[in-house]
Write a structure and sequence with these properties.
The structure holds 2 protein chains of 2 kinds. Chain A is mainly α. Chain A contains 41 helices and 2 strands. Chain A has a two-stranded antiparallel sheet. By secondary structure, chain B is of the alpha+beta class. Chain B is built from 4 helices and 7 strands; from the N terminus they run E-H-H-E-E-E-H-E-H-E-E. Chain B has helices at about 20-25, 30-40, 90-105, 120-125, and strands at about 5, 45-50, 55-65, 70-80, 110-115, 130-140, 150-155. Chain B has a 7-stranded mixed sheet, with helices on both faces. The chains are: A mainly alpha, B alpha+beta. Chains A and B meet through helix 15, helix 17, helix 19, helix 27 and helix 29 of A and strand 1, helix 1, helix 2 and helix 3 of B.
Chain lengths: ~950, ~180
């Protein structure tokens, strides 16, 4: 909580208990205590603010706000009130109010270093760069400390970075910042490393690379000491920008002699070498090539350099470094690109790679290293390469099953590397089904054998042989996609479940399982897997998208809601957190990090996934909660993302929201006066949204025509295609369209509207037909046993979800229709009563049509419920235990157990989805009853 | 072979590419990383493989009183992805952190490690660290497992010529008794 000032102030003593209550989360007592204190000391403003904090934390935002403003208008200058108000405003997400607070305080106490600095930070929190620049300067004039001056300079740089107009940045903000720093340089007032770094940043952004280089090499550069090789790295960067290839080459050479494992310098060494060769550069004089030392300008020199580095490593007693050997392959790759014949001097790539494998084959990274250079081998060498590699793997004697096994983990790792290389080279893909099944048997045998090496592994550690298991799974997936044999899929799930049982922390197992269960439409196990992955923070963005794609679309609404919440919590806290650390970066002079933090925050905020989660979460709320109260917030949903699906969903959400505002506001509707303006404004919104939806659906149709197929392990395709082909999109759109026609009827009235009424009745009928069709697409079995094989049709589940969503939308429109028609009907009845004699007036078409419609809707929902019930029954009746597993696939009893467990999970998850869908339908069916007149 | 460079915010997005980052490492929230980036950017170094994969990282800070000869470098996190282990990368990253601490005029470098984590304890011993003291129940319980003690391990830097900072304290201390 806030710093409590100094002991001498008696007010501190009085306020202390309130602070304590707040700290302990006892907000009620804090409020009471504040009230007590305020009775005695009316002018103790801080007590009011603390009370406001208590109110804010107990959900009484409005009360809290007005209380806070009472104090704020007095423009307090005591620490306690200011700090308490700062906390309160931050909790209210109103950081802009903090700036007002300290603007007033600074005016009243112009010499306070503290208030000036608070004002600067308050501006920083809301990103008011210009005001920051002024506040920093004002602070420096009050207390001439260097950091304050440079806060102001940095604020100029931020104005440059955020300027819409790059010209303004280049001609005004940055030059001004440069002059400000130059002034300090001339007066020899530069003190800290951070100041030099900021100077470098400015020169770099101005493109003044020569000046930047001089500065880094000069006396100011001597201050760059914190970061290792800071000066060298900055020089290198400038050499590259200025295309000073001799210096770049010489510096890379120097740094590589010092550390022959620094990959980035090999790259800059080769880059510069070839640039120099292209320019036929030669040194100006014999002794000194350039300021950085000797320069290499020929392939011969480069070859010798790399060969020397390798020989150095060969001579070493300690562990050799991979850098020089990789550099050799990189040089061959580059020479070949240039069509240069000298590559032979370095040796045959095949031999070099074998040599590399000999040295590093027992390291797990060997595969990622060699993978980059496999293209150096011609295809006809691939099999030879695999065989020669095999010779370098020490395996034990071949046993009964025809396999020899590694004797220790190093041999295992080598064997594994060969298997992986063979997969990368495509040698496994060319095998036929029989060959692939044999490969699976071999890999499985190695997997099980290798488990003995990891018996003492902790739960958090991986098994040495996990990768075998993963490879088995991938071969199964190959087989499944090639042959469509679902048994392959079940066994794949089984083997992954088995792998997970031995290696419960293996995230790759979990991710692959997660993906497979998603494809199968079984969301329940996915939730457990995701939470066991313990996704943290940014991973909600990078992995979470998988979940959001499948959660709602599979009818697991509770789980979906939970997973959206996970992700949302992360995104929201990010926005608050980053601002805090931007401020810290100013305090500690980490100027280079400030633009980085801001870019990071922007990246997260603009994440498509974030936008999706936000929208999906709200739609879900709408579908599941029958009596939803819509706030302005829902309508203000921003539609920045271009993703069409997101747009369709957002438009649907906004349409429902406007509809709710129209239909669910009976109090307003009763007073006829207010009706006019409100409705006409709303109806034009409705119209605009509808035409937007129409346009978006057209674009969507164009997109889905392309039928983009993503690779299995690639991103999941969106729900767009199936939403369109099932007819769900169009049914929802025509339902929403109907609401517009109903509005028209509301203004016209029942007399003189027969055409309109007929139109509405036709829409009623057409919607029924569309829903019927959609429902008929849901028919079939999601899970069935055929010839003792288990078959899935997850798409049926997805279509069923579309159906239920569409029914929800139609029922919303139905309830809106009722709210339009009901008053029309009662006014009709009043008229009737007046003209009792003339009772021959027939019931208007639209009213009878509506009654018929609700009846048909009821019928469809009942049909759907029957279908769901039927599916539940047949799912429950499926006796998985009756399946004979493992026949012909040499699965052990234990392996069959894992496969069965995976099947169980899918079955249970389908049942869960059906139950949730059934519940939702039943709830909505109840609401239908209330629509009848 | 490795590219060693300063850690940037965008690296946070690459974390889940690596098993290790999923399992062992992302125990910290974004604010925690940002705090280190804002305060001690030079102490936050990442190692990148030629293919662009993150191999590992080290994150640390400088703290303590100079007057009491307690100014030192602290290793907050060190992690190497499983596929890049046994290459000496951890040693390289530690060496860099020590070098930075040398330049800042630190007396020693220290770190905390779970008493049960023998692999790590041995590695640090090989790198010249010794157990300075035991901190009781430094790691709080999770998943039903009990609280665990930590070793506070130290290595003297050149400024501590008499190597006073690493003379072991025989009695264990409680977490609240350490700064």
């Amino acid at each position: 909580m806030a710093a409590r000032g100094h002991v001498q102030d008696p007010n501190d003593r009085r306020l202390r208990p309130i602070y304590d209550y707040l700290d302990n989360g006892n907000n009620k007592m804090a409020i009471q205590q504040a009230d007590k204190l305020l009775k005695k000391h009316k002018d103790l403003h801080c007590a009011k603010v603390l009370k406001a904090i208590g109110l804010q934390r107990t959900g009484k935002q409005d009360e809290a706000f007005s209380l806070a403003q009472e104090v704020a208008t007095l423009e307090p200058t005591d620490d306690n009130s200011l700090q308490a108000l700062t906390i309160l405003y931050r909790e209210m997400h109103r950081p802009e109010l903090v700036t007002k607070l300290y603007e007033a305080a600074v005016k009243k106490v112009p010499l306070s270093e503290e208030y000036h600095s608070h004002l600067f930070m308050a501006y920083a929190r809301v990103g008011e760069y210009k005001k920051m620049q002024q506040a920093g300067m004002a602070l420096y004039k009050t207390v001439p400390k260097n950091p304050y001056y440079f806060w102001s300079v940095m604020s100029l740089v931020m104005q440059a970075i955020s300027a819409q107009d790059e010209k303004l940045a280049q001609t005004m903000f940055l030059p001004l910042a440069e002059r400000m720093v130059e002034k300090m340089v001339k007066e020899e007032k530069i003190e800290a490393e951070a100041e030099v770094q900021l100077y470098f940043m400015i020169l770099e952004r101005l493109g003044k690379y020569v000046e930047a280089l001089d500065m880094v090499r000069g006396p100011l550069g001597e201050k760059l000491t914190s970061e290792l090789q800071s000066r060298e790295n900055k020089c290198m960067m400038m050499y590259q920008r200025l295309q000073l290839w001799p210096e770049c080459n010489a510096l890379s050479y120097k740094l590589l002699l010092k550390n022959p494992d620094e990959w980035q310098f090999y790259l800059s060494y080769f880059d510069s070498l070839f640039h120099l060769m292209d320019k036929s550069w030669s040194p100006p004089n014999e002794e000194e090539h350039c300021v950085e030392g000797p320069v290499h300008t020929t392939v011969a020199e480069a070859v010798k350099f790399v060969v020397d580095r390798m020989e150095e490593e060969d001579k070493k007693d300690s562990r050799p470094l991979r850098g020089p050997y990789m550099a050799c392959l990189e040089l061959i790759h580059r020479l070949r690109q240039r069509g240069c014949p000298d590559e032979e001097e370095l040796g045959d790539p095949l031999e070099l790679m074998l040599q590399f494998f000999g040295k590093f084959g027992d390291k797990p990274c060997c595969i990622t290293d060699l993978k980059i250079y496999l293209h150096l081998l011609p295809p006809e060498q691939h099999t030879q390469f695999e065989n020669r590699l095999g010779e370098l793997v020490p395996l034990g004697e071949v046993g009964e099953d025809g396999f020899g096994f590694p004797g220790d983990t190093k041999a295992l790792q080598r064997h594994l590397c060969v298997c992986q290389l063979s997969r990368v080279l495509g040698l496994q893909h060319t095998l036929d089904t029989e060959g692939k099944l044999c490969l699976i048997t071999e890999l499985k045998a190695h997997y099980h054998y290798g488990l003995q090496f990891g018996k003492s592994c902790l739960k958090t550690e991986l098994q040495f042989s996990d990768t075998y298991c993963l490879m088995v799974a991938h071969v199964y997936i190959d087989l499944w996609t090639e042959t469509g044999d679902e048994n392959m899929l079940w066994q794949c799930l089984g083997v992954l479940e088995e792998g997970l049982s031995y290696s419960p922390s293996n995230a790759q197992f979990k991710l692959l399982l997660l993906l497979l269960f998603c494809r199968l439409g079984a969301f329940q196990p996915v939730v457990d897997l995701y939470s066991s992955l313990d996704a943290k923070h940014v991973q909600h963005d990078t992995i979470g998208y998988l979940l959001t794609r499948y959660a709602g679309s599979l009818g697991q609404f509770a789980a979906a809601s939970q997973s959206y919440n996970f992700s949302l919590r992360f995104f929201h806290s990010n926005q608050k957190d980053t601002s805090e650390y931007i401020i810290q970066a100013y305090k500690y002079g980490a100027f280079e990090k400030i633009p980085e933090f801001i870019a990071f925050r922007t990246r997260l905020n603009q994440s498509l996934h974030f936008a999706q989660v936000r929208t999906e979460r709200m739609l879900l709320d709408l579908y599941t909660e029958a009596d939803m109260e819509l706030t302005e917030e829902h309508r203000r949903l921003s539609l920045e993302e271009e993703s069409v699906w997101l747009k369709v969903r957002s438009l649907t959400l906004r349409l429902l929201a406007s509809l709710a505002l129209l239909g669910h506001a009976p109090s307003k509707r009763n007073s006829d006066k207010t009706n006019e303006n409100g409705v006409s404004a709303k109806s034009s919104t409705l119209q605009t949204l509808l035409s937007q939806l129409d346009l978006t659906l057209q674009t969507a149709a164009q997109i889905t025509e392309k039928q983009t197929q993503y690779p299995f392990l690639g991103p999941p395709s969106s729900r767009l295609a199936s939403a369109l082909s099932s007819g769900s999109c169009h049914c929802q759109a025509s339902a929403l369209q109907l609401s517009l026609t109903l509005q028209e009827l509301e203004t016209t009235g029942l007399d003189d509207s027969s055409e309109l009424q007929t139109q509405i009745c036709n829409s009623f009928k057409s919607l029924i037909v569309q829903l019927q069709e959609l429902l008929s697409r849901c028919k079939g079995d999601v899970l069935e046993m055929k010839d003792s094989r288990l078959m899935t049709q997850p798409s049926l589940l997805e279509t069923l979800v579309f159906f239920v969503e569409t029914v929800c939308v139609v029922l919303w429109v139905a309830s809106y229709s009722a709210s339009v028609l009901r008053p029309l009907k009662s006014s009709l009845q009043k008229k009737k009563k007046k003209k009792t004699k003339d009772s021959s007036t027939a019931m208007p078409v639209v009213l009878s049509g509506f009654q018929e419609w609700t009846g048909s809707l009821q019928g469809i929902v009942t049909q759907a419920l029957d279908h769901v019930k039927g599916q539940e029954a047949s799912l429950t009746a499926l006796k998985l235990a009756a399946l004979t597993l493992g026949v012909g696939h040499a699965q052990t009893q234990e392996e069959c157990g894992f496969t069965r467990a995976a099947m169980d999970k899918v079955q249970t998850s389908y049942l869960g989805s059906l139950q949730e869908l059934g519940d939702l339908l039943r709830k909505r069916a109840d609401s239908l009853k209330s629509l009848k007149f | 072979m490795t590219t060693l460079r300063a850690f940037t915010c965008d690296d946070l997005f690459k974390f889940n590419n690596i098993q290790a980052f999923l399992n062992f490492l992302s125990q910290y929230g974004i604010p925690f990383y940002l705090q280190y980036l804002a305060h001690w950017p030079e102490y936050f170094i990442v190692a990148e493989a030629p293919g662009g994969e993150l191999m590992g990282y080290i994150m640390g800070k400088a703290e303590g009183s100079v007057a009491r000869e307690e100014w030192h470098g602290h290793v907050t996190a060190l992690s190497v992805a499983p596929e890049f282990r046994r290459l000496g990368l951890a040693a390289k990253l530690m060496e860099m952190l020590e070098e930075i601490s040398e330049r800042k005029g630190g007396f020693f470098v220290d770190l905390f490690v779970r008493v049960s984590n023998q692999v790590a304890v041995n590695m640090y011993k090989q790198l010249g660290y010794s157990v300075y003291r035991t901190v009781i129940e430094y790691y709080s319980a999770s998943n039903g497992e009990p609280d665990e003690d930590a070793y506070d391990m130290r290595k003297a830097l050149s400024r501590d010529t008499e190597r006073k900072s690493i003379i072991p304290i025989p009695h264990p201390v409680r977490p609240e008794d350490i700064e």
